[in-house]
Amino acid sequence: MVVDFGGQYSQLIARRVRECRVYSELIPHTTPLADIQAMQPGGIILSGGPRSVNQPGAPSLDPEIFTLGIPVLGICYGLQLLAKLKGGRVERAGQAEYGGRTLTVCRAEGLFAGLPPESPCWMSHGDSVVELPTGFTVTGTSPNMPVAAMENQELGLYGVQFHPEVRHTAFGMDILKNFLYSICDIPPTWTPVSIIEEAVERIREQVGDEQVVCGLSGGVDSAVAALLVYKAVGEQLTCIFVDHGLNRMNEAAQVEDTFRRHFHVPLVHVRAQDRFVGKLAGVTDPEQKRRIIGEEFIRTFEEESHKLGKSRFLVQGTIYPDVIESGTDSAAVIKSHHNVGGLPDDVDFELVEPLRLLFKDEVRAVGEELGLPESIVWRQPFPGPGLAIRIVGEVTRERLEILRKADAVLLDEVRRAGLYRQLWQSFAVLAAIRSVGVMGDERTYAYPIILRAVTSDDAMTADWARLPYDLLERISQRIINEVPGVNRVALDISSKPPSTIEWE
Q1: What is the reported pLDDT for 94?
Q2: What Rg, from alpha-carbon coordinates, does the chain have?
Q3: Contact 418, 373 (CB under 8 A)
């Protein structure tokens, strides 16, 4: 269990634990002790956080958690909270540490078994432990921090002031593995196969012998969710592909081919372009777009479900970043995903979300294990609201067609350059403004297209991709020459944070 104190790396800790092939869940620090005991975790990690443990109202937890006999690792704020609750003293550091520092290991065993005497680590803190709790010893220091790591082996309590979960800490994964494998004695058995087996069991238990419908978009998330449910309940599942007119070029045909012909999954193709585009008329606020699309999806599913004979369950491809960005107890709302924060209050379904706690790379691994074709498994993420949130302004048929064609050019050139798998996402954005240009000695007044390409591991953070200039030139020339209504191409060179990957 990773206990979340609101740190920027909390989700990353859970992800790194999973990369060690150990299943982890992120829980709020307000989770009752009895609930934690009921989950029977093999280990507990306390995350970092933005507050000082000495501030009034600072996040805390029941100190009885340290008496359960379950090994605990505190990271940054987690170390400081552990120290304070066990009787140590935490104060404002004489000199705060932010960024790369050198960790000096005092004892190369336990948490630091196999580590060199010195190695790079990543610090981000203003407070520090100035007095150890009784029974604890210092196991690591840094140039400005006499307590960069501490432990009480007898009680199974460990703490590090730095962040082993970030890549800048050279041996961070080794530290986590030492905690998981040696200290917690948890075997690395969590694999795509085990994920599938556990998901199938949960789905069968939840659904029983009732009928199920699945909202299929054609992306990897909904595709993997659909195949998991199909593996669990077979013909009880009917997939509903809502062609809302907001998809990219030829996506409907790809969905039909993959699921109807390749996997023989029951599929209903709903052509609802007029319905969705009509509902979006005059709407410019992105959150309103998402809510409208989310509600229309649900209403469409309800209508189609009634035609099939009333299904109680709806399968969705919700994944963990969707949940986090839509707002949790410890994370602010970044944007409402149509399948989370954008859902209407009166949903007439019980949701089946087998991927809700998986990151994108884990979803892809499961998809490969299930036999999904590469074109689906490695398809770049595409938002449920589709092109509607890649048009900054009102969504119209004309703008959709312009953006669809420009996006197809971009993806074609990225694939030709052999970069498609290297990029997390690459797509076009249409800003609903017009600028002056000249074509054939005549004045034009047309739309700009903005190119967006990013690299990322999990979409929680992302960096803008340094695409070759000759590739950018080809994309720009083709879009301007081949897509009527466009006379200018721009490049977005913003990273996340402070930006987001999508524009809306």
Answers
A1: 63
A2: 25
A3: no
For residue 462, give the DSSP letter. B
Count CB atoms within 10 A of the CB of residue 446: 18
Q: At 403, which helix (H) or strand (E)? A: helix 397-416
What is the rounded end-to-end Cα distance, in angstroms, of the chain?
33
| Rounded mean pLDDT, 241-249 | 89
- pLDDT computed for residue 324 by the predictor: 63
Q: Is the pLDDT of residue 209 over 70?
A: yes
Among 92, 77, 74, 80, which residue's Cα sits nearest to residue 144?
92
Catalytic residue among 76, 121, 184, 214: 76
Query: pLDDT digits over 189-207, tens only?
Result: 988 888 899 899 999 999 9
pLDDT digits (tens, 9 = 90+) for 296-338: 888 887 888 888 877 788 898 888 777 765 544 444 443 344 4
Interval 348-372: pLDDT, tens: 678 899 998 888 888 999 999 998 8
pLDDT of the residue at 224: 93
Catalytic site residue 165? yes
Q: Find the helix or strand (DSSP H, E) in which 426 lies.
A: strand 425-431
Cα dihedral angle (495, 499, 501, 503), rounded to 10 degrees?
Answer: -140
What domains can be seen in the chain, in order of their start residue? 2-183 (3.40.50.880), 192-377 (3.40.50.620), 390-491 (3.30.300.10)
Give the whole-angstrom CA distance, residue 136 versus residue 154: 9
- Is 338 catalytic? The answer is no
Asked if 382 contacts 408 with a C-beta cutoff of 8 angstroms, the reply is no
Q: Which of 163, 244, 337, 338 is catalytic?
A: 163
Regarding beta strands 89-105 and 137-142, do their DSSP bridges make them parallel or antiparallel, or are they unpaired? antiparallel
DSSP assignment string, 266-290 = -EEEEE-HHHHHHHTTT---HHHHH
Place of tokens 């410890």: 330
109 exposed, middle or buried (CB, 10 Å; 0-12, 13-18, 19+)? middle
Burial class (CB in 10 A: 0-12, 13-18, 19+), 490: middle
- List the Cα angle 204/361/327 in 5-degree steps: 75
Residue of 151, 165, 295, 504 marked active site: 165
Are the C-beta atoms of 172 and 154 separated by less than 8 Å? no
The answer to whether residues 265 and 237 touch, using CB atoms and an 8 Å cutoff, is yes
Smallest CA-to-CA distance from 184 within 72, 271, 268, 278 is with: 72
Task: Return the pLDDT at 93.
Answer: 66
Lowest model confidence (mean pLDDT) among 50-59, 69-78, 300-309, 369-378: 300-309
